[in-house]
């Protein structure tokens, strides 16, 4: 059973959104080729789904500005612009994405006291989203993942997939993903590789 996981391909992370990833919208066309290829038995997407006033937002902390380091529940936390607030246009999956072919959408980041980069669990690793159980229930043996952003949600999702889905082959599709910081992207790919996640091109996935 081969699955494709599309991570946070949302308006908020694309140009014009509240937390845009450079060229974030360019992953949509590649993702659609993967979705439409017939190579995958299961298509899953994750969706950042924050309540208003989430603790990771700089606006929730007096004197803090976006992209400064702060704390959340006593732990270091990057302060983000308000983004992907539940039931807003910013939180919607990109309208160009072939959403009708997605079998399951896993929402994340709903606890205002902890951020959630990974599609599988919150950053404090105390609360699971349920995605790992869903994929195990579908008897997934291979998982390709891609999306936004490589150096945050994609990386943490890939690493958690290896840990939480033992025996499943996990691959990262590089050209169907974009990151925030070039140096961070390079480091993220290396960190994923060390954890057993191969970086591939969409042409490899479609071969």
In short:
Helix content is 24%, strand content 19%. It is an alpha/beta fold and 207 residues long. The strands form 2 sheets. The protein has a 6-stranded parallel beta sheet with strand order 5-2-1-6-7-8, with helices on both faces.
Structure description:
One of its GO terms (biological process) is pyridine nucleotide biosynthetic process. Belongs to the isochorismatase family. Pfam families: Isochorismatase (PF00857). Its EC number is 3.5.1.19. Keywords: Hydrolase, Metal-binding, Pyridine nucleotide biosynthesis. The chain is an alpha/beta fold. The protein has one domain: Isochorismatase-like (Rossmann fold, 3-Layer(aba) Sandwich), CATH 3.40.50.850. It contains 5 helices and 8 strands; from the N terminus they run βαββββαβαβαβα. It has a 6-stranded parallel sheet with strand order 5-2-1-6-7-8, with helices on both faces. A two-stranded antiparallel ribbon has the order 3-4. Strand 7, helix 4 and strand 8 form a beta-alpha-beta unit. Helix 3 runs parallel beside helix 4. The radius of gyration is 16 Å and the shape is globular. The two termini are 17 Å apart. The model has no long low-confidence stretch (mean pLDDT 97).
């Amino acid at each position: 059973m081969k699955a494709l996981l599309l991570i946070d391909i949302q308006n908020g992370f694309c140009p014009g959104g509240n937390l845009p990833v450079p060229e974030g919208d360019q992953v949509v066309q590649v993702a659609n080729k993967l979705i439409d290829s017939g190579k995958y038995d299961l298509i899953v997407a994750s969706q950042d789904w924050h309540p208003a006033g989430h603790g990771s937002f700089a606006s929730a902390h007096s004197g803090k500005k976006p992209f400064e380091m702060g704390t959340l529940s006593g732990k270091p936390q990057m302060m983000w612009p308000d983004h992907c607030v539940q039931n807003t246009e910013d939180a919607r999956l990109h309208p160009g994405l072939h959403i009708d072919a997605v079998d399951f959408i896993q929402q994340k980041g709903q606890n205002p006291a902890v951020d959630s980069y990974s599609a599988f669990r919150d950053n404090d690793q105390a609360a699971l989203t349920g995605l790992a159980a869903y994929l195990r229930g579908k008897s997934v043996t291979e998982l390709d993942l891609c999306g936004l952003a490589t150096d945050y949600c994609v990386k943490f999702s890939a690493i958690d997939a290896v840990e939480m889905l033992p025996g499943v082959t996990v691959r990262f599709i590089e050209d169907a993903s974009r990151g925030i910081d070039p140096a961070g992207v390079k480091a993220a790919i290396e960190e994923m590789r060390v954890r057993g996640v191969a970086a591939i091109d969409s042409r490899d996935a479609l071969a």
